[in-house]
Each structure stands twice: as structure tokens, then as C-alpha cells.
TrEMBL record:
Residue ranges of domain MIR in the record: 28-82, 90-142, 146-202
Domain of life, per lineage: Eukaryota
Phylogenetic lineage: Eukaryota, Fungi, Fungi incertae sedis, Mucoromycota, Mortierellomycotina
Signal peptide: 1-20
Pfam family, any one: MIR
Keyword Transcription regulation in record: no
Keywords from the named record: Repeat, Signal
Protein name (record): MIR motif-containing protein
SMART domains the record matches: MIR
Length: 210
């Protein structure tokens, strides 16, 4: 494991890595199965987030938001294979793969369905423990030259069932009890930067040698 803190050198331990500086060793440059990542919304720089607060409307499932802080462990998501499949720890994720993202703290999966989101009128995105095909998301790499999901590179996450894209916007911000947090919903691609995400901070497993 490489633990990297601002201003400190790498400390080599085991087989995963926490990266907080832009210089990334080659074996940690790809997003890999089993890694726990923070997804940054490119336009606002907020992090994909969840917490034990249910939606007051719609499904009533655990809500998903985007938050400005970098240090909240409620913004960690474990990369897993699509429902009914497995992937080995450290296996790189190819562009176009179907993945699930499991919220590290509450053990629920990033999910969407045909309920409407509370603010923007898109589809609701929730955290759901039921494990069904509403948990499957397709990784679409915006850099067509990249074969794998790369850290710091922009991606879209397209919901496999509905064809909509994971989105957030500075125009849709909650008040109490979660003031300042942005709504996260699923929308058709709008090409306004609201669907662009990148994997940044996190606990990364080194790329598995084949």
C-alpha cells in the first residue's frame, strides 16, 4: 500500500494506495477492482456522497448528494463488478465496463430507477441495499485513446437500465438538513459538464500483474 499525504514521501506497505498528490506510480494509474475511490464532479469539484438520510419523496431510499469537502469518508465508493459477476482485486477496469459502486460506510449500492429526483426533475439516484440491476453503471471514458478507466481522467457513468447519466449541478443545492449539498440525479447527456466525473482521492489497489 502506498500512503501519500501532501508534502510527504511515499510509504510502501502491502498492495493498496491512498493518493493525494498528482505524481502517481505506474501501477496505481488505473482504477482497479476493490479500490475505494472518491468521484469528483468536474464542474463543481464536489464529491459524490451518501449518508443515512432518506429522500423525503420518491423512493424514500438513502439519498445521494455531492459535497465540497475532501476528507469525508462518506464519499468513498468501492469499485465492484456488475451484478452477478466478480472481478479480482487489482484488476483494471476497461472503458465500457459495467460496474457497481458500493458505499463504503453504509454498504449500499449507487442506484437509479424511474422515480423522479426532488429538484431537477431527472431520475432519482439513491443508495440501495437490495442489489438488483438498477445498481449497474457503464464507465464511458471521454478520452477515446484510453483503453482503461484512468485516475484523474474524465468519465461518464451511464445507468445501464435507463440510459441516463450520473449528474450534478450548482443550480440545484439543498437547504436543511443538508445545506450546501448538491443534488445528484440521472439525466440524458446534456454536454454541459454536469455529467463529467473523475476518480481522485481514495484507497487504490495496485494493478494486478497478468
Amino acid at each position: 500500500m502506498h500512503i501519500v499525504l501532501p508534502g510527504l514521501a511515499y510509504l510502501a506497505l502491502f498492495a493498496s494506495a491512498t493518493i493525494a498528490i498528482p505524481d502517481i506510480d505506474e501501477e496505481f494509474q488505473k482504477v482497479t477492482c476493490g479500490s475505494s475511490i472518491k468521484l469528483t464532479h468536474e464542474k463543481s469539484h464536489f464529491k459524490l456522497h451518501s449518508h443515512q438520510i432518506p429522500y423525503g419523496t420518491g423512493s424514500g431510499q438513502q439519498s445521494i448528494t455531492a459535497v465540497p469537502g475532501k476528507d469525508d469518508t462518506n464519499s468513498l465508493w468501492r469499485v465492484m463488478a456488475q451484478l452477478g459477476h466478480t472481478c479480482d482485486r487489482g484488476e483494471p477496469v476497461p472503458c465500457g465496463s459495467v460496474v457497481r459502486l458500493k458505499h463504503v460506510n453504509t454498504k449500499k449500492f449507487l442506484h437509479s430507477h424511474h422515480h423522479h429526483s426532488p429538484m431537477s426533475g431527472g431520475l432519482e439516484v439513491s443508495a440501495y441495499e437490495g442489489q438488483d440491476d438498477g445498481d449497474n453503471w457503464i464507465v464511458e471514458c471521454t478520452n477515446k485513446k484510453e483503453e482503461f478507466w484512468m485516475r484523474e481522467s474524465t468519465i461518464y457513468l451511464r445507468h445501464a437500465n435507463t440510459g441516463t447519466y450520473l449528474s450534478s449541478s450548482t443550480r440545484h443545492v439543498y437547504g436543511n438538513p443538508i445545506p450546501g449539498q448538491q443534488e445528484v440525479a440521472a439525466h440524458r447527456l446534456q454536454n454541459q459538464g454536469e455529467q463529467n466525473w473523475s476518480a481522485q482521492e481514495g484507497i487504490y489497489f495496485a494493478e494486478k500483474e497478468l
